[in-house]
From TrEMBL:
Residues 22-196 form the Phosphoribulokinase/uridine kinase domain. This is Phosphoribulokinase/uridine kinase domain-containing protein. GO terms for molecular function: ATP binding; kinase activity. NCBIfam families: PRK07667.1. Pfam families: PRK. SUPFAM superfamilies: P-loop containing nucleoside triphosphate hydrolases. It comes from the Bacteria. InterPro entries: P-loop_NTPase, PRK/URK.
């Protein structure tokens, strides 16, 4: 992974020209996005490069809007898990220009949202990490996209034992949505950099 991180750091340094540079870490569930992001942030910190990170899963909608809606489970996960247009207008658009803005964060315990004020420096690398980031509603806001490519079998083994027992949920919800994303969006082909993990 160190070679991947060094390469990514070099690419970002070479390509960063704007004051705000949005780097997306895309990949399917348990591909290693969070681990790579944390390690990359440490490298940026060591280089004294201003940066901030957002996790797209912090901005999902309440359960009643994404479960038992009458739609197929995979559709709920892919299309209803996030308010796509809200995130585009109140998150991605503001990352480009706003110094201060409010953003809703999902609280899984209360199944509600809490508003937080975001303060961004004039010049920084903004890392957005999560699944399905290259969907057409969001892709245009990113300066550089990394796609972590990891086989389904390896990703599934990274789930805890209790989660692995609910195989039907993976088959009906997660894997079908992932298959749709791979076929409809072609994230491997559209990414600026593909990392095999």
């Amino acid at each position: 992974m160190e070679d991947h991180l060094q390469h990514l750091l070099q690419v970002v340094k070479e390509k960063k020209q704007a004051k705000r540079y949005i780097l997306a870490i895309d990949g399917l569930s348990r591909a290693g996005k969070t681990t790579l992001t944390e390690r990359f942030c440490q490298m940026l910190k060591d280089e004294d490069i201003s940066h901030t990170t957002f996790h797209i899963d912090d901005h999902i909608v309440e359960k009643k809007k994404r479960y038992n809606t009458g739609r197929d489970e995979w559709f709920e996960y892919y299309f209803l898990q996030w308010n796509l247009h809200e995130i585009r207008s109140n998150f991605f658009e503001k990352l480009l220009l706003s110094k201060n803005f409010s953003l809703l964060f999902y609280d899984g315990i209360s199944d509600t949202h809490k508003e937080k004020m975001i303060h961004l420096p004039e010049e920084c690398i903004i890392i957005v990490e999560g699944v399905f980031l290259q969907r057409q509603e969001w892709r245009g806001y990113m300066d550089f996209v990394v796609f972590l490519d990891c086989p389904k079998e390896i990703r599934f083994k990274r789930e805890n034992e209790q989660t692995q027992r609910d195989l039907e949920k993976f088959r009906n919800r997660y894997w079908k949505a992932e298959d749709f994303y791979l076929k409809a969006v072609s994230p491997r082909q559209k990414a600026d950099l593909v990392l095999q993990l």
